[in-house]
Design brief:
The protein has about 300 residues and is mostly helical. The chain has helices spanning about 1-40, 45-50, 65-70, 75-105, 110-125, 130-135, 145-150, 155-165, 170-180, 185-195, 195-210, 215-220, 230-250, 255-260, 270-300. One of its GO terms (biological process) is transmembrane transport.
């Protein structure tokens, strides 16, 4: 018995050591790119070109962030991005969960057909040009509605929420019906509160996708500056920095000539890209801790069917 316990203890020690080592290496591999980007964003632009920056800036500078925050359009674009993200998250969760509740009801005879139609949209897409023509014909070009109306329903989120709603005991709904509650009241007062973990998880996915999106602004709202988003403005700044870097290289302007002209005030595409990445990621990093406790629980509950 003592020998068995000793072997079991040795096996546990070996497994724990290997598992901990693997997780530490995995964590380092995931965290290092973030810390490296942060270090580059705070490093002097021309010094960044030399390379060799890892976890700490070699020549500390705030010039990269000055360039980003000195943009006249960035603050208005930031407010549009925040408003866009909030509206998309709220409307997507409400309408998708309401449709998911309807498709989870056994008395709805068309639930299978409607579900198949939505699932098909996950595999087949009309393409960029037909989508643009549809948006144009709906008169949503250069309007705020183009951001949220096409995103009201998400097929993947619909399946996840419907699966979770079907795991809710039917006795809850039957009791509410006995008390005289109608379907919409049942949905608002019973289904939605019980779906909070799943809805919080989906809200994080939708918010990240909406916040990081810039191509929709480029396609539909590039003609109205007041509807431009933060990501689109940062994308334009990055493209401008890249073009400036390419032009400098083509005309023979090297690091030495730039440094002589005042290297501490010079930015490079690498440094601007790092600063833009940090600026765009900070809002999501701020929101994530508030939803973290729902994240794993919501994924597990939404993917398991009784």
């Amino acid at each position: 018995m003592k020998l068995g316990k000793r072997n079991l203890s040795t096996e546990n020690v070996i497994f724990t050591t290997l598992n901990s080592t693997f997780l530490i290496l995995l964590s380092v591999a995931m965290v290092y790119p973030m810390l490296n980007t942060l270090a580059i964003s705070f490093n002097e632009g021309m010094d960044t070109v030399r390379g060799g920056i890892y976890l700490w800036p070699r020549i500390f500078s705030l010039q990269n962030y000055r360039v980003v925050f000195n943009m006249d359009t960035i603050y208005g674009a930031f407010m549009i991005s925040v408003l866009k993200t909030i509206v998309i998250v709220v409307t997507n969760l409400f309408f998708t969960s309401m449709l998911a509740y309807a498709l989870s009801r056994k008395e709805y005879i068309l639930r299978k057909s409607v579900t198949i139609i939505f699932v098909m949209t996950m595999y087949f897409n009309a393409g960029l040009i037909p989508n643009y023509m549809l948006i144009r014909d709906l008169h949503m070009i250069n309007t705020f509605s183009v951001y949220w109306i096409p995103n009201i329903i998400s097929a993947f989120n619909l399946i996840v929420i419907r699966t979770y709603i079907k795991s809710i005991p039917e006795s809850f709904i039957e009791s509410a019906k006995i008390d005289g509650a109608r379907e919409f009241r049942i949905f608002l007062q019973i289904i939605l509160p019980l779906c909070v973990p799943t809805l919080a998880t989906i809200a994080l996915f939708v918010a990240v996708g909406s916040w990081n999106s810039w191509f929709d602004t480029f396609l539909y709202n590039s003609g109205r500056q007041e509807l431009s988003t933060l990501q689109y403005e940062l994308q334009k700044l990055l493209a401008s920095a890249m073009n400036a870097g390419n032009t400098s290289g083509a005309t023979g302007g090297g690091a030495n000539s730039a440094a002589q002209a005042g290297g501490s005030n010079v930015t490079t595409p690498q440094s601007i890209r790092a600063a833009i990445t940090v600026v765009a990621a900070v809002p999501i990093l701020v929101v994530y801790p508030f939803l973290q406790r729902y994240f794993v629980n919501g994924l597990a509950l939404g993917g398991v069917k009784e």
